[in-house]
Amino acid sequence: MMPEFIYTEDPNKRYHTWNYALRQQFGGKIFKVPLDGGFDCPNRDGTVAKGGCTFCSVSGSGDMIIAPKDPLPIQFQKEIQMMHKKWPNVNQYIVYFQNFTNTHAPVDVIRHRFEQVVNEKGVVGISIGTRPDCLPDDVVEYLAELNQRYYLWVELGLQTTYEHTSSIINRAHNYQTYLDGVKKLRKHNIRVCTHLINGLPGESLEMMRENVRRTILDSDIQGIKLHLLHLMTNTRMLRDYHEGRLQLMTRENYVNVICDQLEMIPPEIVIHRLTGDAPSDTLVGPMWSLKKWEVLNAIDDEMKKRGSTQGIYNVRDTKGVLI
Question: In Å, what is the CA distance from 198 to each residue of 98, 158, 160, 317?
Fold first, then answer.
């Protein structure tokens, strides 16, 4: 018999889904509306490095945004119009500043851009993708203000806890910077969602599991995004692949390591994502990742096969012993 799991209404899900968390918060379906805020990254513009993360596309992970060059209110309207074609009755939205580093600017610039859309009709929340080295005190104070007005998440790109891997992929910040960033946000009770990537160069399945274990034990986070590494055209990482320093993950290995990671994540932590989207015309691999729903269904099937749930081997309960 499957262990009782209270964080879902879907019998096929054995983890705390983002959809469930939003329904509990707002009582119905919510659109998360991706926007391009016009920001850059400190490891692209020379602030800390140049060239950006080696896996990052020219859009800064904003490949799926419909009209990134339009003014923010227009972007917002175009995104929700498209979403309404499938879900016409949804009228609550979380604006998602998705690509590049959305706190990498003076606070007055950040405030001006965010305030253009947070007051749009139906907006109940805001999600901000950023880096842990772009959280100066005045920006955090503004985020704390937003946290009083809206349902706020700050999504921190970490990707790996290993300094060697971080150097290879040109993250240009260390693990301690991430830990310090989480502490600054949690001081104001701001929800934090950490991003990790499975399949980075040189990382074994055990290291991928260890990334999650460290993140959960070392930082007070409320959400997590687990991504598959997508190898894209026109990225610096393509050279690693051609020179044999990168092996793309098989679907079987990815599904298994995701389930291992879910089993150690405390059940109250929201799983914002278990895989990602990539445009088919720029994806080098793994090509199986284009069938996103098949991957998610395979994860559900493996958790069912194991008779398992998120947090069954909660690392916080086992004092960090990896099972």
Answer: 20, 12, 9, 24
* Spatial CA neighbour of 138 closest among 116, 186, 106, 115: 106
Sequence-separated (6 or more) residues with CB below 8 Å from residue 245 = 201, 202
Both tokens of 279, joined, read 């445009």
Q: 3-class SS at 206? A: helix
Q: What percent of the chain is modeled with pLDDT above 70?
A: 95
- Tokens standing for residue 60: 């800064």
Hey, what amino acid is at 19?
N
pLDDT at 4: 74
Which residues face 128 on adjacent strands? 97, 154
- Cβ proximity of 3 and 309 under 8 Å: yes
Length of the chain: 323
pTM, 2 dp: 0.94
3-state secondary structure of 158: strand
pLDDT mean over 246-263:
97
